[in-house]
Design brief:
- By secondary structure, this protein is an alpha/beta fold.
- The protein folds into three domains: 174 residues, 3-Layer(aba) Sandwich (Rossmann fold); 254 residues, N-(1-d-carboxylethyl)-l-norvaline Dehydrogenase, domain 2 (Orthogonal Bundle), CATH 1.10.1040; 37 residues, Single alpha-helices involved in coiled-coils or other helix-helix interfaces, CATH 1.20.5.
- 56% of the residues lie in helices and 8% in strands.
- The protein is built from 20 helices and nine strands.
- The longest helix has 34 residues.
- The protein is globular.
- The protein starts with 9 loop residues before the first strand and ends with a helix.
- InterPro entries: 6-PGluconate_DH-like_C_sf, 6PGD_dom2, 6PGDH_C, 6PGDH_Gnd/GntZ, 6PGDH_NADP-bd, NAD(P)-bd_dom_sf, Pgluconate_DH.
- Pathway: Carbohydrate degradation; pentose phosphate pathway; D-ribulose 5-phosphate from D-glucose 6-phosphate (oxidative stage): step 3/3.
- GO terms for molecular function: NADP binding; phosphogluconate dehydrogenase (decarboxylating) activity.
């Protein structure tokens, strides 16, 4: 295997789909790169791709020592391996050959506390460490991802010139990368990005379900609708690929491929982590949580098949087929989808801010919206509005109360309510849209029925309560008073 004439600018370890594509992207941008993978066939495959895709300056190594020695000092190595133990193992393998001042960057979807643990351990060895979220999937890694590096600022400066060129480029707002902040902030932000992505995908699936099940739209019509939506306020990567999906015929049988795909969703864990963090931080994230629940329920395929038999005939009197105006339904669903999406992003941004406050990360929410505009899975024209909202008011309590978003939600709420009611009366579950609407309705109300819940807590557990008219904490002997009244 040909060795470089002089040390390469950077190294990359881990040549599965993301690693291989990111390595080729870096090489294509003019940075000579060394690559290594424990399974050597992946190294050979990547070197061959580099030749085919333009004789790119990429050099493969079968052993970790020669790989590390081939990189210029201070060395920078990106790892793209499976989260957890494989990351620790890779660090152990590489750090045996690294010297003080060298840097390791974890580009995987890692739990942020693992990154903080590793950063401390690396610092004791005199090494720098970054946890860097990479979004955009295979295509993004190859042609320009959204990059979210967090950890050592010194380490970021060592590689900033590469990241700026490798990241997705958006004409009006620049490269989709910024230094996120200290510690595990890069991984945390990527995790919440994925949680928002869960919400987005669920909301789009619900829009599809209502249009197909109630509106009886064909795949051809759905393709037209989503293509049209992708020209307006919903313009985004996910809407674009959804339109594409509806146009693809099955190559194994008649009809469209989407109808043959099993209704059972997989997941890798970042959505679950997001919901767990919401609970830990006491931040309401019902849209994201309902999207996770929807994935859990989708996994119960066999149980759902049996339940359909049990309830098939029993609901026929209640669930009356709805007569709908197709054009009106399409427009209502568009508005409901947009309003629900605002709630999902508001929840994600509130989670990031809460963790930033807890950890002292000083994260800039507007800047996060900017770097998500290109390269990543949730890239959308909608993110311009989010950036503007935080530019107007960096301390904005919630996206819902930004004047621009508040106006848009008010304008769309009638359509939103119609879609949710129509779905309920048709027996179509819309947990994302319904929970988004409930979130909005709870957040906009001056008084909630939580007074009763607090009274119940004080009744059975003497947890005390506050009053609306007098300062202080109070406890009432509810049981004794109720007993006297009964007598």
């Amino acid at each position: 295997m040909a060795a470089p004439a002089k040390p390469t600018r950077i190294g990359l370890a881990g040549l599965a789909v993301m690693g291989q594509n990111l390595a080729l992207n870096i090489a294509e941008k003019g940075f000579p790169i060394s690559v290594y993978n424990r399974t050597t066939s992946k190294v050979d495959e990547t070197v061959e791709r580099a030749k085919v895709e333009g004789d790119l300056p990429l050099y493969g190594f079968h052993d970790p020592e020669s790989f590390v020695q081939s990189i210029q000092k201070p060395r920078v190595i990106i790892m793209l391996v499976k989260a957890g133990a494989p990351v620790d193992q890779t660090i152990k393998t590489l750090s045996a050959y690294l010297e003080k001042g060298d840097c390791i960057i974890d580009g995987g979807n890692e739990w942020y506390e693992n990154t903080e643990r590793r950063e401390k351990a690396m610092a004791e060895l005199g090494l720098l460490y970054l946890g860097m979220g990479v979004s955009g999937g295979e295509e993004g890694a190859r042609n320009g991802p959204s990059l979210m590096p967090g950890g050592s600022f010194e380490a970021f400066k060592n590689i900033e010139d590469i990241l700026v060129k490798v990241a997705a480029q958006v004409p009006d707002s620049g490269p989709c990368v910024t230094y996120i902040g200290k510690g595990g902030s890069g991984n945390f932000v990527k995790m919440i990005h994925n949680g928002i992505e869960y919400g987005d995908m669920q909301l789009i699936a619900e829009a599809y379900d209502v249009l197909r099940s109630v509106g009886k739209l064909s795949n051809e019509e759905l393709h037209q609708v989503f293509s049209e939506w992708n020209k307006g306020e919903l313009l985004s990567f996910l809407i674009e690929i959804t339109a594409d999906i509806f146009s693809i015929k099955d190559d194994k049988a008649d009809g469209y491929l989407v109808d043959k795909v099993l209704d059972k969703t997989g997941m890798k864990g970042t959505g679950k982590w997001t919901v767990q963090q919401a609970a830990d931080l006491s931040v309401a994230a019902p849209t994201i949580a309902s999207s996770l629940d929807a994935r859990f329920l989708s996994g119960l395929k066999e149980e759902r098949v049996e339940a359909a038999k049990v309830f098939g005939s029993g609901l026929s009197d209640v669930l009356v087929p709805q007569e709908v105006d197709k054009a009106k339904l399409i427009d209502d669903v568009r508005q409901a989808l947009y309003a629900s999406k605002i709630c999902s992003y508001a929840q994600g941004m509130n989670l990031i801010r809460a963790k930033s406050n807890e950890k002292g990360w000083d994260l800039k929410l507007g800047e996060l919206a900017r770097i998500w505009k290109g390269g990543c899975i949730i890239r959308a024209v909608f993110l311009d509005r989010i950036k503007r909202a935080y530019d107007r008011n960096p301390d904005l309590a919630n996206l819902l109360v930004d004047p621009e978003f508040a106006k848009e939600i008010v304008e769309r709420q009638s359509a939103w309510r119609r879609v949710v009611c129509l779905a309920i009366n048709s027996g179509i579950s819309t947990p994302g849209m319904s929970s988004s609407l409930a979130y909005f309705d709870s957040y906009r109300r001056e008084r909630l029925p939580a007074n009763l819940v607090q009274a119940q807590r004080d009744y059975f557990g003497a947890h005390t309560y506050e009053r609306t008219d007098v300062e202080g904490s109070f406890h009432t002997e509810w049981f004794k008073i109720a007993k006297q009244l009964k007598n």
